[in-house]
């Protein structure tokens, strides 16, 4: 999953840099440009936290499935160990 998180960080970083450059080269007044940058930064931050929440949910769900499988295996092994 390390490559996925690296990709996500790279994607968000690239989007932030691209947006900042696009705004900086736009022919607006300084105040308008600063407001655009602030707004875009807030949007990217929100998007980042959403993606982190999605990844956390995915990991928690995966861990839950693994725990269930381990419990099933333990149960099957305990049944085999007990004489019938």
Description:
This protein is mainly alpha-helical and 84 residues long. It has one domain. It is 89% helix and 0% strand. It has two helices and no strands. The protein has helices at 2-24, 30-81. Helix 1 (2-24) packs antiparallel against helix 2 (30-81). The radius of gyration is 24 Å and the shape is rod-shaped. The relative contact order is 0.08. The model has no long low-confidence stretch (mean pLDDT 82).
What pattern of helices and strands is seen along the backbone?
HH
Helix fraction, binned, reads: over 70%
Helical region count? 2
Rg for CA atoms: 24 Å
Mean pLDDT: 82
Helix and strand content put the structural class at mainly alpha
Q: Could you say how many structural domains there are in total? A: 1
> What gross morphology would you assign?
rod-shaped
**Parts with pLDDT < 50 across at least 5 consecutive residues:** none
| Strand portion | under 5%
How widely separated are the two ends? 44 Å
Number of strands: 0
What profile does the largest beta sheet have?
A: none
SSE arrangement:
Blueprint: H1 2-24, H2 30-81
Helix pairs in contact: 1-2
Task: Kindly summarize this structure in a few lines.
This protein has helices spanning 2-24, 30-81.
